[in-house]
Amino acid sequence: MTDTATLIAPRSTGAAPPVAPGRTPWKHEAAGFVLGFACLALLPLIFGDTYARHVLIMVFIYAVVASNWDLSLGYGGVFNFGHLALFGIGVYAYSLLTKLAELDPWIALFASGVIATLAAILVTIPILRLKGIYIILVTFGFAQLVMQVIISQSDITGGTQGLVRIPGLYLFDHNMVRDGKFAYFYIALALLVASTLFLRVFVRSRTGASVVALRDNEEYAISRGVSIVRQRMLTLAASAFFTGMAGAFYAAYQRNASVDVFGMSLATIILSMVLLGGTGTIYGAIIASFVLTIFAEWMADFGAWRPMITAVLIIGVMLAYPSGLAGMIKAAWGGVAGRLKRPA
Amino acid sequence: MSALAEILFGGLFQGSLYAMMAVGLALVWTTIGVFNFSHGVFMMLGAYIAWQLVELGLPAAVAFPIAVIVMAGVGWILQASVVRPLIGRPNIVLVVVITTLAAGSLIENGALTLWGPRSKQIPALIEGNTTIGGVGVSLHQIAIIVITPLILAALWMFLNRTRLGLALRAVAQNEDASHLVGLNVTALYGLAFAIAASLAGLAGIFMGGYRFMSPVMGADPLLKALIVVVFGGISSISGPIFAAYLIGFFEAACSYYFGLYWTPALLFGVLILTLMVRPEGIFASRSRGLA
């Protein structure tokens, strides 16, 4: 009896209306946010070898891409399968801007985010009238189109060969190549912090609430005056900026670019992170990128068995926990918290 | 003259393969409402099973039907393991995409481990070459062009003239009502997947007869089948068939006039434009159902 009552109307003091039932107060979240990322910032002091730092840098890049994908896929409910194309656009935008236009790498990094955002706005136009499966197909087609254009323009883009010797980032006179990936680690972490902060502020804002409203009940949201065209475009554009920056950073870090970034295998891995983490959480995607990347590295010796084991793992989690790792953690936390709160 | 014959022949041939793939995708989508991203892997697996049977000493006439039947079983198993347990979940479309992708990756890497990366070839349906309208063609390709419409016609007859086929269409039209009149919806889901997997496997056998096989051979046909179903409208069987041949001709003409590199880009461009004008596909009616 009391349980259902609290479910329907969460207890409030009457001073302020509840923001959203079950939502964490922002102060708690901010504390967790700072604590979590402070822990990450201390990691290079524990892991001295460059290999461990390299794995963490890759985790951060994947986490940025996956959590931004979660914005359009999980929060927006737009079955966007072209997200990796935005990452690829970032990779190639940075490579071409620094290599051909000889732009300053830092400006190119920022410009790549802008270019990816423009591309996202462009791809929103054909999907405005579409629903569900058709959005999957068009966005998938968009990703393929971008890849085919890059392959066919091999004079500029290197085609299937890709590009090499792309200028890296620099910090004054600091030698980034010989510092054991120290600087790149913190740049990647800074990117993840900025991206996560942006995403969380976005989804907690009024705009974010209206995006979720559109996802959950489109007709009702529209009847309440939410514009599906504007919100959908805004969501995709917002998810593109840091994805493009992550792509640019990836190019600067790896110092080469290839069309592999548009391929199915990378898309599958990142999509697994989004779904394994639990859609509509942002943090879930980040946690899942840690789990999956470190798991994949840990199994590096397994050869062809590695993708097979990963596939079985993904299927298993999807069947057992449809809400992903975030749902798993939430369920566990709920159990613990419930036990603690129970009056003695 | 020769150019026209080349485009016509190439279109018919490619169109046949795309139709075989796209019909399976559309069948699964209309009945279950999910998109099977391991469909391309079915194609590869069918070809490899046929190759293995031929390698064991079976004649092609025996090996190919066995491979197709085995593929039906594979389709059934895949449906039962990664699709059926998810039915009823709110985000099933999305989750099934990832589970079928993962299952596809599992089968693909399994094939790689089992059979190795070296290219293989299975015997052609009919050996030999001939010349039609100034274009040299192989009898194998002509056989595909002739056989595919027969198989598709048989599928159409099955869906429209048999009780089982009508039951499948009923599930596609209204699942709840099908439950009410006592149809075994779960079994029909399995049947849709089994038919789709068999058709894809057969397409793989056809392809393995004129091109070297590899564990990733299904990726490109899957992509083309996706274009076909979007172009033709996914909610029917006839739409994708027409679209498959249309895309086949378009592709043949593009690669003849613009070169091989630009063809995929043009295809995707046309696809996106089509969807902007007719989101349901050019041949689609507004309702969901098999016809």
Automatic annotation (TrEMBL), chain A:
Topology with respect to the bilayer: Multi-pass membrane protein
Disordered, as annotated region: 1-21
Pfam families: BPD_transp_2
Record-linked InterPro entries: ABC_transp_permease, LivM-like
Transmembrane segments: 30-48, 78-94, 106-125, 132-151, 183-203, 233-253, 265-296, 308-333
UniProt subcellular location: Cell membrane
Keyword Plastid among UniProt keywords: no
Swiss-Prot/TrEMBL keywords: Cell membrane, Membrane, Transmembrane, Transmembrane helix
Keyword Protein biosynthesis: no
Domain of life (superkingdom): Bacteria
Protein name according to UniProt: Branched-chain amino acid ABC transporter permease
Automatic annotation (TrEMBL), chain B:
Membrane topology annotation: Multi-pass membrane protein
Subcellular location: Cell membrane
Top-level taxon in the UniProt lineage: Bacteria
Transmembrane parts of this sequence: 7-29, 61-80, 92-116, 137-159, 187-210, 222-250, 256-277
Key words of the record: Amino-acid transport, Cell membrane, Membrane, Transmembrane, Transmembrane helix, Transport
CDD domains named among the record's database cross-references: TM_PBP1_LivH_like
Protein name in the entry: Branched-chain amino acid ABC transporter permease
Organism of this sequence: Mesorhizobium shangrilense
Family: Belongs to the binding-protein-dependent transport system permease family. LivHM subfamily.
Primary site of residence: membrane
